[in-house]
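FAQ: What does the model actually see?

It sees only this:
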Amino acid sequence: MKILVTGTAGFIGSTLAIQLLERGDEVIGVDNVNDYYDPSLKEARLERLKVYPGFTEVRISLEDREKLEAAFVQHKPQKVVNLAAQAGVRYSLENPQAYIDANIVGFTNILENCRHHGVEHLVYASSSSVYGANESMPFSVHDNVDHPVSLYAATKKANELMAHTYSHLFDLPTTGLRFFTVYGPWGRPDMALFMFTKNILEGKPIDVFNYGKHQRDFTYIDDIVEGVIRTLDNTAQPNENWSGKTPDSATSKAPYKLYNIGSNSPCELLRYIEIIEECVGKKAIKNLLPMQPGDVMATYADVDALIKDVDYKPSTTIEEGVAKFVEWYRDFYQV
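And it is asked to produce this:
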């Protein structure tokens, strides 16, 4: 297959691209390599991809409508995986416009190009953050998610609604994936595992919000990528039993699907820090703080739909995953 992947300089995008290239797909990698975090890490991820003859780099922003359309015209992808986005809950409190540009305008451009260029299936990254103020656990794709608590979450919910419209109006198969706290080698420097590992190794304090009491469904990068590939290969189909009288938010009469991809096993932040300490061989200096605006107490993924439709459930334990990250970090930064 010829697959256009956006965000290939990113954490998930680069790892996904390698797996697709390894199995023989061609990958057109779209990324603007911005400076939201260290561009040298992004360039290093891209260098891993450039050794594959099936990889083509296209360095543009999704907001650039003309250049994005030119990429679709030139490369004619059969399928698209949209992972490029302005990420981060906390940053959305400081710079909301970046989220509208990348996550709303950029995603509109992706949808339009998929519609006009005969794309067979669009898979796109949503987020566990869409569950917002929900407290019923585990989070199910069949739950109502109308109470986001950050602009980042609101843009991801908007992406799901926009995708449904295109599935309904233009018969474009779309699948949205709600990722739950992804971690692992080549991860983002603005995420807890990276920041905690760096500071513990350097003997610096770590900021522990909500006094370490909140829980996250930490999901290892390889498990996320396996879920993406399985859903990509399983093109969204209409649900013939869908009814507007009892609407199911995860399916539709249109070719539209939503899935959670999470470990289905929440871990308290203080325990997560203990595992990092064990792997690093050093104790953390904890700066215990109250919960931040936009944060939620817990995330916990119901993955029944993923198991039912594509026979897959993430399985990497948090102990295994953190150990692999710390090993990568020491090697990459020569610590």
